[in-house]
Amino acid sequence: MRFQDAAPDARAVVYAGIQADPSIARIAGLLADANASQLLLARAILNGESSDPATWRAMVPTCFPDERSEAILAASLEIAAHADQARNQYRGAIVESVTETLLVRRITARGGPRTAIRRERRILFDGVRAEIHPYDVTVELPAAGEAYDCKWSARGIDGDVLHQLDDARAHAAAEDERLRVALVVFDTRIACGVRLARRTEPYAGTGLVTIEGFARLGGART
Amino acid sequence: MSEAIEPVVGRAVDAVGVLETLGEEVADEWTYVTDLARVQRRRLAEIADRRGGTSLASDRVSAIDLAIAEVGRIVDPHRAIDWLSTFPDLVALALDEPLGGA
């Protein structure tokens, strides 16, 4: 098993510009330390229509007054102001960036190198054709690899991603390698449960992280 | 003003129906939308049943009505599907219920 950079296509080049937007790193840093209610606040704003901060404060009163909630509110409204297509790309980039931030936190806290966490990587196995889509975030440590696919919503869970993650896990096992695979979904556990309930693809060996348990990615025991 | 929990949650259940109807316009997601709407309606109804006879503080009634008003602003069916998972948890938060129905 080995990791490799994905060759950037035209979409990836455009998307890289969004990933590098400072607003993404800013909100990811805020969300990495957010509780589940604050993550829901961000999800609601980034899915919503209202641009008045007072409306959101009153709609989610359990999050206010609070300094982090205010910062999340402002950062979310800034991104929600983008037109629909860009907003969708920003939302995807946010999930990836939060995931990366939390994984860096967990790995470095245990003495691992920051460079072990990578973005947009393929995983290659002997005699197996490479997957078309790279993994959003990977942890590349000897004998402890991890691969994450990040989704803004449960709707993003489809047969292709479930097969890709399970195939990677199985191929790694066939090479006596350990590869942890998981979906990180910036959506609720209920929505993901409903989405998965009708899927026929294998996913028993695939982890699922939803907004109720994001902190676990960073090593928290929630 | 404070208000009994049943009519407030009843309005939220109606709003789930609005999102469901809009989300069903995405034909490929019809099954997911109807499944999710059914689960969310049942979840909210269970809360109302369990806490029946209690009243909600005015700020919590306002919070839920603002979330319902936000539902009314949504015209894009894809965004309606996103809100079908988000809206009931906003209601749950306002009711001091755990996220995700846990």
Describe what you observe in this structure:
The complex is a heterodimer of chains A (222) and B (102). Chain A has 222 residues and is α/β, with parallel strands linked by helices. Chain A has helices at residues 10-19, 22-32, 36-47, 53-59, 67-80, 84-109, 159-174, 189-197, and strands spanning 2-5, 117-124, 135-139, 145-151, 179-185, 206-209. Chain A has 8 helices and 6 strands. Chain A has a 6-stranded mixed β-sheet with strand order 1-2-3-4-5-6. In chain A, strand 4 (145-151), helix 7 (159-174) and strand 5 form a beta-alpha-beta unit. In chain A, helix 2 (22-32) packs across helix 6. Chain A is globular, with a radius of gyration of 18 Å. Chain B has one domain. Chain B is 73% helix and 4% strand. Chain B contains 4 helices and 2 strands, in the order βααβαα. A two-stranded antiparallel sheet of chain B has the order 1-2. The longest helix of chain B is centred in the middle third of the chain and has 21 residues, at 30-50. The mean pLDDT of chain B is 96. Chains A and B meet through helix 3, helix 4 and helix 8 of A and helix 2, helix 3 and helix 4 of B.
Brief digest:
The complex is a heterodimer of chains A (222) and B (102). Chain A has 222 residues and is an alpha/beta fold. Chain A has helices at 10-19, 22-32, 36-47, 53-59, 67-80, 84-109, 159-174, 189-197, and strands at residues 2-5, 117-124, 135-139, 145-151, 179-185, 206-209.
Sequence-ordered SSE layout with sheet pairings:
The complex is a heterodimer of chains A (222) and B (102).
Chain A: E1 2-5, H1 10-19, H2 22-32, H3 36-47, H4 53-59, H5 67-80, H6 84-109, E2 117-124, E3 135-139, E4 145-151, H7 159-174, E5 179-185, H8 189-197, E6 206-209
Parallel strand pairs in A: 4-5, 5-6
Antiparallel strand pairs in A: 1-2, 2-3, 3-4
Helix pairs in contact in A: 2-5, 2-6, 3-5
Chain B: E1 3-4, H1 5-23, H2 30-50, E2 55-56, H3 58-73, H4 77-94
Antiparallel strand pairs in B: 1-2
